[in-house]
Fold:
Amino acid sequence: MNDRLFELLVDSFTKILIPGLTMTIPLTIIAFSLALVIAMVVAMIQFAQVPVLKEIARLYIWIVRGTPLLVQLYVVFFGLPNLGIMIDPFPCAVLVFSLNEGAYCAETIRGALEAVPKGQMEAGLCVGMNYFQIMRRIVIPQALRTAFPPLSNSLIGMVKDTSLAANITVTEMFMTTQRIVARTYEPLALYIEVALIYLIFCTVLTKLQSYGEARLNRLVGVKTTR
Structure:
C-alpha cells in the first residue's frame, strides 16, 4: 500500500464513521424499534385469531415479504409524490424499513408465541388469570426467550440494509463512501473500508446479542426455580 492510499484511508475513516454514528445507527434504532411495535401488534392479532384483522395482517406480511426492500423504498420516495405525498429521505427510510422489518419480525414473534405450550394458557386460566394477564405474565416472557436470537439477527441485518437508503439520498455511510470514491477513484480500498466499519458495528451487536441471551437464560432459570 502506497503512502497516498494509506493517508486516504486514514482520512476517510472518520468521514465514513461519523455518518455511521449519526445516521446509520439512529436510522437502525428508530426503524427497528417501530418494527418491533408493528410486529408485536401483528403477531398478537394472528395469535389471538382476531377476525378480519388477521386477514389484513396476513395481507400486509404477504405484500411486504413478497417485494424487494429497494422497490419499496422507490415506491414510497419516488412514487408517492405523484399522489401529492412528499416524504423527506430520512423519515421515508424509517417508514419503509420499519414496515419491512415489522413483517418479518411479526412472523418471528408469532412463531415464538405458538411455540409456548398450550398448557401454559390453560394453567393460567385455572388460577383465575384473564387472557391479558396470561399473555403478559406467562406467554410473552417465554416467547421472548425463543424470539430473541432471530430478532437480534434481524437487527444486525437491518444495519447492513440501511446502505440501501443511499438510493433515496440519505447521507449514511455507504453514500458518504460513494462520494469519496467519486472524488478519489479508489473504489476497492474505500468499499473494503466501509465494509469493515459495517463489520465492526455488526460485531458489537453480536456481542450484545450473546450477552442478552445469557441474561435471558439466567432470568428464565430463576423464574423456573421459583
Remarks:
- The chain has a mean pLDDT of 91.
- The radius of gyration is 21 Å.
- The first helix runs from residue 3 to 47.
- The helical segments are 3-47, 53-65, 69-79, 89-115, 118-126, 131-161, 173-184, 187-225.
